[in-house]
Amino acid sequence: MSGSTNVNSAVTIFRFSDLPEDIGRLIFEIVADNGWGPACALVSKKVQAWVEPIVYRRIVVLDFKTATLIAHTLGDPTSSKSEEFLATHVKVVILGLSSPQDIPHDIMTSFIQSCRGLKMLALWYFLPGEETQEFLTSLRQVAPSHLSVNRHVLPMRQRHFLHPIFQDVTHLEVIREAEDDWSWDSLSQLNRLTHLSLDLHLDSPDVVKIVRDVIGDCPPCLRVLVIWCDTDSYFYDEENDLGLDSLGVRAVARGDIDPRAVVAWADQSLKDMPRPQSEQPIIRNYNDVKNDWAGVSAPGEDFWAQAEEVIEGRLQRQTAGKMLLLLPGGTKFGT
Fold first, then answer.
1. Other Cβ atoms within 10 Å of 125 Cβ, number
2. What Å distances lie between residue 30 and 27, 54, 297, CA to CA?
3. How would you write the chain as a 3-class SS string?
4. Are strands 195-200 and 171-176 parallel, antiparallel or unpaired?
5. C-beta of residue 133 within 8 angstroms of C-beta of residue 99
6. Is the Cβ–Cβ distance between 214 and 192 less than 8 Å?
7. Which of 70, 68, 61, 65 is nearest to 92 (CA)?
8. 148-196 pLDDT, tens per residue?
9. Which burial class, exposed, middle or buried, applies to 218 when counting CB atoms under 10 A from its CB (0-12, 13-18, 19+)?
10. Of 19, 45, 108, 235, which residue is 20 to 30 A from 81 by alpha carbon distance?
11. pLDDT in tens, 184-225
């Protein structure tokens, strides 16, 4: 008994509060950064103050429940989320709503305007009405480097790329639904544009023409063009697995049309299909694309990085092919 008593008396009870504050804060910040921020914020007001900048770093609104919570927080006059807080800490916003009642227009406009430090913005909602379509034109203080938009966020006669929100864009995604839904020649004014992604929703697009026309409208600094196709029939058919060559998708995938153009497919159905390496599209599902735009995909795995890898692979194969045309003595065959 005495031995047991001595052992128990030697046990020191460790409490989390005994940790130095900077270490405790670091632990909570790491946990919050791994998706547990809202739960951490309930521990205490001090911990809430530590983790809220992390919680609000990425705001992803893709369902009614999240939209309701955001609207309540932003519309609460007693909220601690001041304009300065939003300007300092919000870096990524993804909006994928289906109803204008999800978040009132005035609250959403004020919120985005306050996020002056925003780096990535994806507007994927389909909201009717002039009020909603004037939303993007009203943004004067926000200039993200990464922007994804569809035509519903601008009035019909203002679907061009000269609005202030496009001024600092380096990575732009446009969801294209009709041949004339955007004024494409205004792309040439985006002097920082290096990466462009087009999500095609057309019945029978001439993909080769689209690639040539869009690249012709882009500034010289463009390095990557990603073409998203919305049907697997672009890549194969049930009878001969050859794909619809008349649409030119395989030629684009090989880099024959322009070495900067890469084909992508937002599904997993093509992943295990044997294809020549030069024709293999980038394959990302919906969650992959959402994570890419939220900035949480693993380094080198988002679709931009994969497109760069495809283009680099083409250059390496091209260089290797030229090397094969040279004999050791320097005699050159071909051109």
1. 23
2. 5, 9, 17
3. CHHHHHHHHHCCCCCHHHCCHHHHHHHHHHHHHHHHHHHHCCCCHHHHHHHHHHHCCEEEECCHHHHHHHHHHHHCCCCCCCHHHHHHHCCEEEECCCCCCCCCHHHHHHHHHHCCCCCEEEECCCCCCHHHHCCHHHCCCCCCCEEEEEHHHCCHHHCCCCCHHHCCCCEEEEEECCCCCCCHHHHHHCCCCCEEEEEECCCCCCHHHHHHHHHHHCCCCCCEEEEEECCHHHCCCCCCCCCCHHHCHHHHHHCCCCCCEEEEECCCCCCCCCCCHHHCCEECCHHHHHHHHHCCCCCCCCHHHHHHHHHHHHHHHHHHHHHHCECCCCCECCC
4. parallel
5. no
6. no
7. 61
8. 988 777 777 778 898 888 999 999 999 876 656 678 889 999 999 999 9
9. buried
10. 19
11. 889 999 999 999 999 876 555 678 888 898 999 999 999 999
Structure tokens at 265: 């497919």
Tokens representing residue 128 in the block: 């009717």
Model pLDDT for residues 39-90, shown as the tens digit of each residue = 888 888 888 888 888 888 998 888 777 777 777 777 666 666 788 888 999 9
Residue count (the chain): 335
Q: What sign for the dihedral angle of Cα 182, 184, 185, 191?
A: positive
Q: Which two tokens stand for residue 233?
A: 């029939």
Let me know: does 132 contact 124? Beta carbons within 8 Å.
Answer: no
Cα(62)–Cα(114) distance, integer angstroms: 20
Q: Which residues pair with 196 in a beta bridge?
A: 172, 225
Token pair 């919906």: residue: 286
Distance between CA atoms of residues 232 and 265, nearest Å: 8
Can you tell me the distance from the alpha carbon of 63 to that of 304, in angstroms, rounded to the nearest whole number? 26
Cα–Cα distance, 154 to 164 (Å, whole number): 13
